[in-house]
User: What shape does this take?
Amino acid sequence: MKEEQIKIALFGNANQVKKGNYIKELLQKLTDKGINVSIEHQFSLFISETLQLNINNFQQFISFQETQANLVISVGGDGTLLRTAAAIGNSTTPILGINTGHLGFLADINPASIGTAIEAFLNGCYTIEERSLLSLESTQKFSVYPYALNEVAILKFDNSALIQVTAEVDGNLLTSYLADGLIICTPTGSTGYSLSVSGPIISPYSKTFCIAPIASHSLNIRPVIVDDSSVITLKVTSRTQKFLMAIDGRSEVMDETATIVLKKAPYTIRVMKITHQHFFDTLRDKMGWGADQR
Assistant: This one.
């Protein structure tokens, strides 16, 4: 790819003031390479007003479609990359995640490797991973973006009683969960919220979804893996007649009369990897497997 053709759209976490030096370094390196950079509007305000960096030579955008970018860079943690994925929607533009957050399974480029990452992109030394998403439909109207790269969580509305979530898979009753909630995750999301409720870690290359309860009232209930061609239907019963639905952290209050239908989305998110690490290498690194804890 010729450098004069390259356009990069930049998204980022607008709360990491202490990580401002990484943003400054990234913008400088992109400028030195003569790359056309557009910065998402809210992130641009953070850079100019909070970090007080001069970005007059960079374009800003509200809608990603304005950018015609060849590459999207997400600066933050996995949560920032999830928001970036929602912002670009069904675009085929790949996302490169620079991790200034915590674990960083998706955004796995160390800030110290920013220069290396840019060079790798320019030289074509990278791979693209296609990550599947969940698509959500409901009998009740809702306003949040209906696709999840990580998970859809059904949660109780307040801190009082449990909720009952009846789950069907392809029209067949799975069970009725009495719990604080239920998580349906993609392989990508298996290292997120689902992992905190003892859900299994799933290879991102497998074609599956996981259904995992949150604080189940029964000791016999366990997470269940289903094929990603399955259609999962959920119905909720709650004392408050309401429940929370969270799609990659974007939440909406729903009435218990709503029926939720989940299935595989018709598009994927393309994640750029420059180190050619296998998922298992990332797992060992992030989870500390095999490290001497003495």
